[in-house]
Structures are given as C-alpha cells and as structure tokens.
UniProtKB/TrEMBL annotation:
Pfam families: Methyltransf_25 (PF13649). InterPro entries: Methyltransf_25 (IPR041698), SAM-dependent_MTases_sf (IPR029063). Residues 74-172 form the Methyltransferase domain. CDD domains: AdoMet_MTases. One of its GO terms (molecular function) is methyltransferase activity. This is Methyltransferase domain-containing protein. It comes from the Bacteria.
Length: 286
C-alpha cells in the first residue's frame, strides 16, 4: 500500500472495514501504474470505473490541441464511455469510438443523446476487440489513450499498428500513451497494494483494496480489486480483475517503425523514481 507520499507500508490484502484501511487519496491511486483502466463488467462497477479514469481528464486538452493540428476524422480506440469521444464531438470533430465493452458504448451514446442530436450525429460507435481491429476508412488522428496499448496482447500489437498506419491520412497522426516500468523496480516490488474510497453520491459507501501483481516472465500484470459497498441495510463484497501487458519501450518503437510510423514527439512524466508515463505522437514515415 502507498501513502500520499508514495512510501510503502504494510498492505491490506482484502476487503476490510474502513476504520482498518490505511488510505491514499482516490486521485493518487487512479494514476498509479496499473490502475489506468477497468472495463465495467456490471452496472455496480461504474462508480469505480469512473473514479479510476477521472484523473485522466486533463489529457483531453492535449489531445484536442493535436486534433486541431491534424483535423478529423478522429478514431478513439478503447473509447470506453466516451471520456474523449464526446468532448471531441462537442468541439466539432467527427469521431469513431471503438470498444470491446458494449455497455460502455451504450453509456457513450446516451451521454451524446443527452447533449443533443448535433453532437450524437458526429459520433459512430463500433463494438470490437482491438486485438482483431479491422478499419473501414481513413483518419487524421488515431488515439490509444489511457494506456490502452497495454490492453493489446504483444503478439497482436504489430498487426494492430499496421492496421492503424494503413488507415492514417498522409499528414495524420497516431497518439498513444503508456506506463514505462523499470524492470529492476518490478523485480524488487512485484506485488503492490493500495486502498482508497470511491467517490459516490448515491448514498453508498464504497471502499476498494487494489492489488497489482507483475509477472516479468510473461510481461503481464493483473490488478485485482477487492470491493466493499455499504448500503443502508447491507454490506456487499465483490472481486473483479483487469489484465494488462507490460509495454517494453524498445519493442514498441521497433513495432512502430515496422508499421511504417515514425515518432515525431515524445513526452515523459515521472510517476515515481522508477516509473514514468510516456506519450508518443507518430506520423507516417516518408
């Protein structure tokens, strides 16, 4: 478990009463490595889903700036419930949102409908697994935001990148971000645990213990969420998991070159002394 300063303390390994949990702030837990995304598998997981993704809202400005430089249409891969898609449509861009989770796409459409038919008319939703991506048109900007590249199996990633490159306009761009881990740091601390309270406004108190386990042999990570929800008359506990892949920077750069893409811009933000977030902006190679 990590305190707000990032100092390791004795972890809690399952749902426990709030009085016994050492907490970190929800915002801190949300951007720590491995907690970037959680596909909602049931209606009662939506609050947790939004809490984990909420702190990423700041990247909308950066991606919008890029979209204004490239123009549209925009392809939002792993769109979820429209965190980027709907704001892009509100700013006048035509957007295709692709996600493997049908309920998330339903939420996206409902959000756009509430805003109005003009916004909804700029959005197309496609229910598909990114590992088997098949595109039908060309785009000026493709996004793999929120570390979605880590959700694509390494064996499928070269093909996905080739598919993206084949459908980019000549002056188009692919923008993706991911968490870069130090191998020595993973080997030293392969198990990491955090506890936090989910912000809710419906009368339910929700606490989560999230345990992240790295496996360097398979270059994978699993995050298990132990959830406790206290309602007026009962307490409910549940467990859900999300599986991701550790992105090797060297492999990713080689795969981008193999797909005919060149890295035009690279930005880094350190999350702790051994982990940093990387944003890559790529253009078709000349």
């Amino acid at each position: 478990m990590y305190t707000q300063t990032g100092t390791p303390v004795t972890p809690a390994l399952g749902p426990v009463p709030p009085s016994r949990i050492t907490t970190a702030s929800p915002a801190l837990c949300a951007w720590l490595p491995g907690l970037e995304s959680l596909a909602p598998h049931a209606e009662d997981q939506l609050w947790l889903h939004d809490a984990l993704l909420g702190p990423f809202s700041g990247d909308i400005v950066e991606y919008l700036t890029l979209a204004r430089a490239t123009g549209g249409p925009v392809l939002d891969l792993g769109s979820g419930a429209g965190r980027l898609t709907v704001p892009f449509a509100r700013h006048g861009f035509t957007v295709e949102a692709v996600d493997r989770d049908a309920p998330s796409l339903e939420r996206l459409r409902a959000w756009a409908d509430r805003i109005g038919p003009q916004i909804r008319g700029r959005i197309t939703t496609t229910h598909a697994d990114l590992a088997r991506l098949r595109l039908r048109r060309r785009y000026q900007l493709t996004l793999l935001a929120g570390a979605m590249v880590a959700a694509i199996p390494p064996y499928a990633r070269p093909g996905v990148l080739r598919e993206i490159a084949a459908h980019l306009g000549g002056d188009g761009a692919l923008a993706l971000d991911y968490t870069a881990h130090d191998a020595a740091g993973i080997a030293e601390h392969p198990h990491r645990t955090w506890a936090f309270q989910v912000p809710r406004f419906d009368g339910v108190t929700e606490w989560v213990v999230a345990r992240q386990v790295f496996d360097l042999a398979t270059m994978s990570e699993r995050i298990t969420y132990f959830i406790e929800r206290s309602e007026k008359t009962r307490v409910r506990r549940s467990i859900t998991t999300t599986d991701k892949w550790i992105v090797n920077q060297g492999d990713l750069l080689r795969e981008l070159r193999g797909a005919g893409l060149r890295v035009a811009d690279q930005r880094q933000q350190w999350l702790d002394e051994r982990t940093h977030s990387v944003l890559l902006v790529c253009h078709p190679a000349e």
